[in-house]
């Protein structure tokens, strides 16, 4: 089986965000070397190879999974590798000789049908003006969450492509939304509804149903599927249904985050 490879100089797009796990000083207090490059951006690096392999078709009906094991830091070289298998591509991201992320990507011969969940999902309440703290009650299983919709402008796409150091030409040439933006909706449904301290996105599974385009308004309806403790961390799992322009299914994401790291108790 053939191998594909891609390198990118990592860039921390969230050093000034509300999530201080991306701030150098705070991240060091949590035991890291510096602010973490966001997981959605590391996933963005990973998606370069499925798009190289399958092109626009992967954005329209492909799938992927990503798991983040070790941080990628600003300025470091992230080496993305892909091994072709019978099922698709096995993906990995290495930096300084360490495995930082792993996953898979695939393109089915037949497009996956739109799940009934998209039609059956209730319309959640709009995100609250005053967000309560994240916890077992506010992120209880069965809770439905919405996000503040965002319109993907040409300027926003161009900024995303610059930040990801993305070299695939089809996004700008065809006005297609980068999959990192689609995955970011999983973060938005959390931060738009609850207040969080430093927190970490640790993995996702993604199924695409259509390629979003510049000018589309992205929104999401998310159901909390689990809230649990593991090795001192508090985790939340969400089933995220991503829409374009209010009703056109774009993707379904199983999104896992540590909303309260064990280090926060110190």
Profile the largest sheet.
11 strands, antiparallel
What share of the residues does DSSP label as strand, in percent? Answer: 25-35%
H/E series: EHHHHEEEEHEEHHHEEEE
Mind telling me the C-alpha Rg? Answer: 18 Å
Task: Characterise the protein shown here.
This protein has 266 residues and is of the alpha+beta class. Strands 1, 2, 3, 4, 5, 6, 7, 8, 9, 10 and 11 form an eleven-stranded antiparallel β-sheet that branches. Helix 2 runs antiparallel to helix 8. The longest helix is centred in the C-terminal third of the chain and has 13 residues. It is globular. 42% of the residues are buried. The model has no long low-confidence stretch (mean pLDDT 96).
Q: What secondary-structure arrangement, pairings included, does this model have?
A:
Layout (H helix, E strand, L loop, with lengths): L2 E7 L14 H6 L9 H8 L1 H7 L1 H6 E7 L8 E8 L4 E7 L2 E10 L8 H5 L23 E3 L3 E2 L2 H11 L5 H5 L4 H13 L8 E9 L8 E14 L2 E12 L3 E13 L6
Antiparallel strand pairs: 1-3, 2-5, 2-8, 3-4, 4-5, 6-9, 7-9, 8-11, 9-10, 10-11
Helix pairs in contact: 2-8
């Amino acid at each position: 089986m053939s191998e594909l490879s891609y390198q990118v100089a990592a860039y921390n797009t969230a050093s000034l965000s509300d999530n201080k796990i991306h701030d150098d000083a705070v991240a060091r207090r949590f035991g890291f070397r510096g602010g973490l490059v966001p997981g959605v951006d590391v996933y963005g690096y990973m998606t370069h190879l499925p798009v190289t392999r399958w092109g626009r078709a992967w954005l329209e009906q492909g799938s992927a999974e990503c798991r983040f094991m070790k941080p990628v830091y600003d300025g470091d070289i992230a080496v993305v590798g892909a091994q072709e298998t019978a099922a698709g591509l096995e993906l990995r991201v290495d930096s300084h000789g360490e495995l930082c992320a792993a996953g898979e990507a695939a393109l089915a011969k037949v497009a996956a049908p739109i799940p009934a969940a998209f039609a059956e999902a209730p319309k959640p309440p709009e995100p609250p003006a005053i967000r309560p703290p994240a916890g077992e009650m506010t992120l209880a299983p069965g809770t439905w969450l919405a996000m503040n919709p965002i319109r993907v402008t040409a300027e926003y796409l161009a900024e995303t492509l610059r930040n990801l150091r993305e070299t695939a030409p089809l996004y700008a040439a065809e006005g297609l939304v980068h999959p990192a933006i689609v995955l970011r909706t999983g973060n938005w449904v959390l931060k738009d509804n609850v207040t969080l301290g430093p927190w970490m996105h640790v993995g996702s599974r993604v199924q695409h149903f259509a390629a979003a385009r510049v000018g589309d308004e992205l929104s999401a309806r998310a159901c909390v599927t689990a809230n649990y403790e593991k090795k001192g961390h508090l985790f939340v799992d969400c089933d995220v249904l991503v829409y374009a322009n209010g009703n056109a299914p774009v993707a379904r994401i199983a999104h896992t985050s540590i909303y309260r790291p064990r280090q926060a108790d110190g």
